[in-house]
Every structure is written in structure tokens, then in C-alpha cells.
């Protein structure tokens, strides 16, 4: 093992600024830092490919799974130095896997490359990532401004749990109304501006650069949930300070893993890992290293998957619109944010793999989904997204059920709004035929006008 001494202010830092090897006294590259070569790439796939590759302990092409909960040292003095912050994982000194784990750290570097941030750290769930960031950035009695259209779990955290537990309150606003956002931020009190790059479930596209400009002018940290649009949008490149993910969704792609990630500046991630005051360290939202290893195997083909999700979503949305349904998809020219999405998005990746169909009533929505699953086998009635099969849910009675009727109306969630995560199994023509068969059956039953 090599030893180095760090400033006490960077306790076990994820990205130290300098290190010296006691072996030769020469400056050495930090083992976890932003890859300067990588920063020239605009394509997320290229950035990911340019990230540091972790080989296994014995030279295997895949990194090792470090399943240990605790780690040994060769000298008693070394442990004291680790707990005072002098020695950390940048030199392969690890204390306990709730703090840092080598396999999780390897995946975290890949996620940072994906989102073009200095650092990242992977968590046990998306909600763990979100709550840890907010609790690190906001003090007791603090305040944040957030979009009124959010994933239901995030909304419940902000609207109900945080005020009860810590007195942290949230002002919910329409992030399309930039003046309302600016007026809601109270200088000296508001700590965070939080929104989703593409809103769940209404698919409103946030003007990330303008919202960041407003937030930074007011001195707040801008946190963006990019779960709906990995590869498609890069919020950090557009000005966001922190990017969070439910890795369970597109990044995983298998509907078999629960995971999350926080991407952002080294200073913030270091503070979250602080032994005495870090939310990651003290709350313990630790990712299992076996999960981290599995996810690291899926990241290299995320770009290929996202392109196909987006291509299929565009094709199906166009067909359903042509057949007379009310379709909400940023790739359609009549979507109010089409031009914005086109200007902000990464070329080659399309407009996202999600779209909504508004059937107006929950009864019609349920009938439509029932036929799509049980009559034509187009998709599955299930929450979540990013799976190779199409997943469908009526948002108002499922993933947004935490909102009351008034809140749903303000968020633009109608009772019959179906959220669809478009998969890529089967052929495009096969799936289009299934859509048409479903609509024919509904028309025969008198639930739709003839299209």
C-alpha cells in the first residue's frame, strides 16, 4: 500500500487535488478525478468509453467484486491516520464499506463520466440519492424551491416528510414560469433549486440553462433529476451543479436492480462522505458491491439501448397520433417543448424513450392498458421504466398517487394519463400492428370514435 497525507478539510476525499508517493516523492495522478481527456468529448458514450477502466485484482478484464465489509491495515498507526482523514481511498486505504467500497467507487467513476461531472457516488436507491443530497445541502428549518411536477415519491419527501422531520420546507412552482421560479427563491434562506430534466409523468422539458442561471444568480445549488433522460440530456454540461439518478431505470435496464447515484463537484461528494457530518456516511445509503459490479457491465451498452428506446418511442408516438390519440412526446413537433429539447439534447440520442397517452378518464386508460397487455401483448402494466419490454401505468392512480386531486391538476396529470416506457423487444412493425389491433378493439366496443 502507498501512503499520502491530505488536508484535514478533505476527509477521505473522493477527488484530492494533489498526492505524493512516499516511494519516489513524485507527484502522482489522483486515482479518482475528472478525466481531462474525457472532457473534450460531447458524446456521453465517448466520455464513458474514455473513463478509467478498472481491471480485476488478477488482471481480468472486469473489475473485482470487493465483498468485504471491513478492511485491514498493516500498521496500527495507519488506522488512526485513516480516521483523521490523512489517508483515504485515493491511495487504496479503505475503512468500512458503508463509507467507501472499491467496487462501488469504480462504478461511481463511470457514472461521473456519463454525466460529465467531477465525481459521483452510487447509492442503494434513487430516493436514497435524492434524500441524501437534500439533507446535505439544507440545514434544519431550511428551504428549497422545486418543480410542482415531480415523481410522486420525491414530491412526498419534499411536501410531507422533510417538514415533519427537519422543518425543511419546499415552495412548488411551475418551472416553465421562470419569473415564478425567481420570485420563489429567497436569498439567504433557499438552498436548493430542484427539478427533473424531463418531468415525471407529464414530459415537460426543463430549460436547464435558464433555470441554472436564475438559481446561481440567487446563490442556490441547482439539483437536476435526469432519470428520464440519460445520454439524451447532460444537465451538468448545461449548468446544473448536481445530477441525481434512479439507476434502477434506464441505466440498469433490467428491471431487476434498485440503485441510485449522485453526480457533482468533488467538494460536495467529499462532504457527503465526511466521517463526522456526511449524509452518505451517517445515513448509510450504501450500494451493494455485487450490484455495482452488475451495473458496471451494463453501462457500456447504455447508449445503444437509449437510441433504440428513443427510436421506438418516436415511431409509436407518431403512429398513435396519426390514429387520433392525444399523445404527449417531446419528439412530436406539436409538443410545446419540442424546439427546446432539440436545442438542449445530445445529438444522435433522440427525444427520450417515454411518452404519454391521455385517454381522459381512468376507465378508458385502464381498458386500453388491459387490451395492450392481455389482448395484443404490446406491453406490461407495471410501474418503473427503462426495461426492454414496454411498461405502462396510469400515473394518477400509481406513481403520482401521492399528490391530491388539486396537486395533480396543477401538475397537469389528468385521470386518464397513461405513462409508457417504450421497450425495444420484438420488431417495430409487430408492435405497431399490436397498437392498431388494440385501438380497433376499443373502437368496436364503443370506447373510441372511429379513427
Automatic annotation (TrEMBL):
Presence of the UniProt keyword Lyase in the record: no
A GO CC term assigned to this protein in UniProt: cytoplasm
Modified residues (N6-(pyridoxal phosphate)lysine): 249
MF GO annotations: carbon-sulfur lyase activity; pyridoxal phosphate binding
GO BP, one annotated term: transsulfuration
Annotated InterPro entries: Cys/Met-Metab_PyrdxlP-dep_enz (IPR000277), PyrdxlP-dep_Trfase (IPR015424), PyrdxlP-dep_Trfase_major (IPR015421), PyrdxlP-dep_Trfase_small (IPR015422)
Alphabetical UniProt keywords: Pyridoxal phosphate
Region entry Disordered, spans: 15-37
Cofactor(s) recorded in Swiss-Prot or TrEMBL: pyridoxal 5'-phosphate
Signal peptide feature range: none
Family assignment from sequence similarity: Belongs to the trans-sulfuration enzymes family.
PANTHER family the record matches: CYSTATHIONINE GAMMA-LYASE, TRANS-SULFURATION ENZYME FAMILY MEMBER
Name of protein: OLC1v1012792C1
Phylogenetic lineage: Eukaryota, Viridiplantae, Streptophyta, Embryophyta, Tracheophyta
